């Protein structure tokens, strides 16, 4: 139904980057990517969740603000953008003051992003692939690189570099990249692409890959990223002059896997 959204979980969430917590997390069900290694596959592919009306979504946003969230963290929002846009407008009319975070896979249509201009304060996209063959193989989509690159340029145009007040992000762009095993050149080209846009952009370089869901069907990614592989990508990050952002430590992978069959998936 056009007047509902499907939400797997919402609540106070401390699993985002340090400048974004405690976040008011709203995890939407469904995704237009079909990543074989998705750690949130229960909601992205299996559609675990419950339907909520737009007015209920507004109430959730306002409640999260009352609980002390520093932002409204919309996780995988893209397929629900029309309902979310309406909810943001209504919530702001009812007094919502904290920033809106658009936490997405990066594979966004420019037309949707332009619809969200002025409503989204912080864009938090993944930039998964520079290699379109990998994108098609592991996520079932075509032209990922060009579409995501264009989307991130648009996000940057809208909100610019990250702005911080009292150690909390208030506006701007953070780009995440998950390093995949056996795909180091893919990671390096992603970083090169972001650097050409602006190497002052905040980068979250993630070392949390763990072979989940259907990764077992692909031998080259059916293992964690090695320390050598990750350090190789990290060295590239430094070579490109990035100084803003976060680099995830090793051996943190399994601690970050949620279970959306629980009342609190992150407990």
Descriptive tags:
267 residues; TIM Barrel; ten-stranded mixed sheet; iron-sulfur; iron; iron-sulfur cluster binding
Structure summarized in a few sentences:
The chain is an alpha/beta fold and 267 residues long. It is built from eight helices and ten strands.
Describe this structure in words.
Strands 1, 2, 3, 4, 5, 6, 7, 8, 9 and 10 form a 10-stranded mixed β-sheet that branches. The model has no long low-confidence stretch (mean pLDDT 95). It contains 8 helices and 10 strands. It is globular. Helix content is 34%, strand content 21%. Helix 2 crosses helix 3 (81-93) and helix 7 packs parallel to helix 8. Strand 8 (168-178), helix 7 (184-198) and strand 9 (202-206) form a beta-alpha-beta unit. With 267 residues, the protein is α/β, with parallel strands linked by helices. The protein has a single domain (4-256), classed as TIM Barrel.
Topology record:
Layout lengths: L3 E10 L9 E6 L12 H4 L5 E4 H14 L4 E4 L5 H13 L6 E5 L5 H7 L5 E4 L6 H8 L4 H16 L3 E3 L2 E11 L5 H15 L3 E5 L20 H13 L5 E3 L20
Parallel strand pairs: 2-4, 4-5, 5-6, 6-8, 8-9, 9-10
Antiparallel strand pairs: 1-2, 1-3, 7-8
